[in-house]
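hey
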């Protein structure tokens, strides 16, 4: 089902902006630390008092942590796509099937191995229903992207023949 939407799908432009934002947050954290260390004569946070300055540092730390989590999710999705590309040949497909596969799993899960659809019970990168079906591809199906991809590619091969046909079905019916 394509009801699960995750915020992990990123275009190259968004990835570049995310990297720049992470750098800016890190720079801001260093600046705040420097101001706090230097004392009241150092700069703009001096008027906040100790509690206000600590709150600002806590906010910067939270933003930095969120940016780090987002960057990790993007990295995990990229790694999953690379794994899937490498596996195509094992299923008898060429790299021409990679584009439709990326579109399909971008829509289904955003390549998030933890994606879950509470209304259908669909789980993981391929959105298997139920997710436990993926145990046939490996015991760590809940947390292992490679296991999920292996199962998903096997499902596509047995049901549709190739990713392009699965993508066509997704476009026509909203599920594959």
């Amino acid at each position: 089902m394509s009801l699960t939407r995750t915020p992990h799908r990123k275009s190259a432009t968004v990835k570049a902006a995310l990297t720049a934002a992470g750098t800016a947050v890190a720079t801001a954290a260093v600046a705040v630390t420097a101001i706090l260390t230097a004392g009241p004569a150092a700069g703009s946070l001096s008027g906040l008092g100790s509690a206000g300055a600590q709150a600002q540092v806590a906010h910067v730390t939270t933003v930095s942590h969120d940016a780090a989590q987002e960057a990790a999710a993007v990295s995990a999705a990229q790694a999953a796509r690379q794994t899937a590309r490498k596996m195509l040949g094992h299923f008898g497909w060429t790299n021409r099937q990679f584009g439709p596969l990326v579109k399909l799993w971008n829509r289904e899960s955003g390549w998030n191995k933890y994606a879950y659809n509470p209304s259908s019970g669909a789980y993981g990168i391929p959105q298997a229903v139920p997710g436990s079906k993926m145990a046939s591809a490996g015991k760590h199906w809940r947390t292992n992207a490679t296991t999920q991809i292996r199962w998903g590619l096997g499902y596509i091969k047995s049901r549709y023949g190739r990713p392009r046909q699965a993508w066509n079905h997704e476009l026509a019916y909203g599920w594959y």
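Confidence is low (pLDDT under 50) at residues 1-46, 55-61. The chain has five helices and no strands.
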